[in-house]
Amino acid sequence: MRRVLVTRPEPSASATAQALRAAGFEPVVLPLTGIRPLEIGETALPAFDAVALTSANAIGHAPQWLRASILTVPVHAVGATTAQSAREAGFADIVVGPGDAAGLAAAMGKALAPGSAVLYLCGRVRKPEFEEGLRNCGIRVIPVETYDTVPTDLADVDMRKLDAGALFAIFVHSAEAAKALALLAKRPAAMHAFESAHLVAISRRAAALVEAVFAGRIVVAREPTEAAMIKALIGLG
What domains lie within the chain, and their CATH numbers? Predict the structure, then answer.
């Protein structure tokens, strides 16, 4: 069975591993980034009309007081996985988006009236497209950062997972993971495991950060979703 390295942090890594097994691949989970909750002091929130989620981590790491104060407000989730996390957190009024942040911004721009305010639960490290998209629709964005993405100390990476045989592909879900992968690739054990592996990246930005390592062996998902990444992986044959 073809081995695929999963570099994203838990608990998302396990979900990716399950999806890869279902597609007929053998996942090798080796997180190169971690998720750290941010401390948010309890405070009164400004008025808002809806909640936006572009990551399951955003609601997963929100403090209990914050969750309790927003559960009755409609939540717009980027895709099915994030929507499921919202349901598990207790939200009932959930709108499932198309699977990418730009698409979610466009959909919310149509659903909400100009001048509306959106509470955006998010990570400290994020791309600007979603917020820019809402603002372009005349919607005010109130970002609340609930977590941070931090690089894994490479001294703590279990390199033994790379000793079981060559990798068919490597999944990179973020620019942060791509940066860590570029550093990991300098290690002799990784060089051997990576020498014939394809890189499947969620975006061109992530792919560009490791282009020197995987030149000629990079495929970028047609959409910034895991489903598109798996489809690209299957297309490699």
Answer: 3-32+155-234 (3.40.50.10090), 36-150 (3.40.50.10090)
Q: Alpha-carbon torsion 82, 45, 123, 224, what sign? A: positive
Residue closest to 118 by CA, chosen among 84, 57, 74, 82: 74
Amino acid in position 36 = R
Which residues, at least 6 apart from 208, have a Cβ–Cβ distance to it below 8 Å? none
Maximal C-alpha separation, the chain: 56
pTM to 2 decimals? 0.82
The first and second tokens of residue 79, run together, are 């895709």
Per residue in 26-72, pLDDT tens? 999 999 999 999 999 998 899 999 999 999 999 999 999 999 999 99
Using CA atoms, how far apart are residues 53 and 82, in angstroms rounded to an integer? Answer: 7
The rounded Cα 215 to chain-centroid distance in angstroms is: 24
C-alpha dist (Å) from residue 36 to 14, 147, 150: 17, 5, 7
Residues 138-192 have pLDDT tens digits of 999 999 999 999 988 888 888 888 887 789 999 999 999 999 999 999 888 788 8
Length of the chain: 237
Q: How far apart are CA 234 and CA 226, in angstroms?
A: 12
